[in-house]
Fold this sequence. Notes:
By secondary structure, the chain is an alpha+beta fold. It has four domains: 15-217, no CATH class; 234-384, no CATH class; 390-461, no CATH class; 464-598, no CATH class. It contains 22 helices and seven strands. The strands form two sheets. Strands 1-2-3-4-5 form a five-stranded mixed β-sheet. The longest helix has 37 residues, at 147-183.
Amino acid sequence: MQPWRTQSRGQGMSMATERASAGQGERWPLLPPLLAALGLATGLIAHWIIGTGYESQVSAVRLALLSFVSVSAIIFGFVAVRTDLIRSAVFAVGCGAVAALILYFNGATSGWSATEGWRIVCLALAIGIAAPLFQAGREGGFRPISYALAHDHAWTNGVLWCLSWAFVGVVMLLSFLLAALFDLIGIDLLKELLRKEWFWRGLVGLAFGLGLALLREQRRIVGLLQNVAMLVLGVLAPVLAVGLGLFLIALPFTGLQPLWEATKSTTPILLACAVGALLLVNAVIGNGGDDAPRNRVLRWAALVLAVAILPLVGIAAVATGLRIGQYGFTPERLWGLTFVVIASVVAVAYVISVIRGRWSWAERVRPANLHLAMIVCGIALLLATPIVSFNAISTGDQVGRLESGKVTPDKFDWAALAFDFGEPGRKALERLKRSSNSAVREKALEASKAKRRYDVVEREPDLQFTGRVQISPAGAVLPKKLKAALTRYICEEGALCRVFLQPDGQTAGILSDGCASLPAQQRADPKTSCQIYTHTLVVHKGEWVKIPLPYESPTMAPAEESISLNAERDAISRGDVTVRKVERRQLFIGDKPSGPLFE
């Protein structure tokens, strides 16, 4: 059996290990105490910035300070070498300054929208790509960057990141174990310290810095673990290649329609598969030369994955285009569209490399990877800034659809405008409150009063129950606000929604009857797979709200349940559904009720 890679460098010795052994890598005894002290200082400064307790809203200044300190310290820990400390420090501080400026101009968290986290992801991605490019460029004198060096540093940094956090986890577990041990004999000093935020934050920073330094000193072990990780990922390549191949072969027979009907997450799933294929391709092809695979199965698997990325991204593009065409722009769809465009560039580059390189396609993919990394780094950095505002674009598009009549006020997503589109959405909502259209004005005013997204979500047309409604007593009129409260959380689609209005006009019993369409004999059979869900709605502050059930229904034997179901169906047919005062028991401690109600 052929080995999957040659091992001419020795036992799993990565290029980084080889370089370290050859020159810049003699041991640096000061590195562990230096990074440990830096980590401790970073943790304590972060505590000073964050403060004690939990605050849901963080100011832009504090975000900027926190990102500058943490990013600078982390990047310095990864790129610092004894022979080039000044440039390492300048690069680390530069990364921290860029992160701080971006977060500062993005504003306080109170103005963030639901998709603001993607900006942080893009910022982390840009810095994560820039670090190995800097490391590789420094070693090559910043002449054309060597792909082999950049590839090796990228994988090494990833391994170091994961192992450093694993070391932090071990340190924290050991600390809690020792605290519990000393607490057994009445010494609770460590236990109390671990409850102090300044202590555990400093401890986390110290552990991360020390772990990173110790791992960087053990270059052979890290190189071996890096090779093991790439070996494991490489072995998974044939599995994913077969799966994606079968999926693409099946598509001409099934068509694309099942993809749209099965889930609304078609694009994320396809992009995740494309990213997985990209990762496994690069794990297999390595950085060239002795690192190239010799196993024929792995080479074919990598080829299949490299080609499969394009159709996957193409289908994702179609799915995204359909959603945008139907419902317009939202920040989520714009982020999805952006990722599809980036993935399309990568996919086309890989297919061109395969076509032009044929059996030597990997030799063309590797330099393409370097250029793609630089492009993605720049785009990610741009997307992290507020220069490109998906919230503003989405707000303009959605409001335009509303004002042009493409969407009626009743079907417009007011919750998204109020809570998902950030500051542009809130400004548009204020403007719509002065609209000449009374329906728009009323809906905008209602959405602006909502303190939580879910206060508006319950009135969204997508959640409105659209099935059959039967009102009792006969001839009664369903109140407008009660009708608006009948969402799919109250009455399930496909069920008969039975509304029993009570004489007081302030209470209603709602039965979501999933058994109504079945024959009478089946409806009373406990084995029949159908449900009747009951809800009680009352008027509270002018709105119909659902009240929870105070206790669980008792369980019954099958025979008893059949009798009970028959009696229940008869009562429903007669319209005998009422709200009554009942007496229950409950545990009291003094005059304070405690525990659930029971019979």
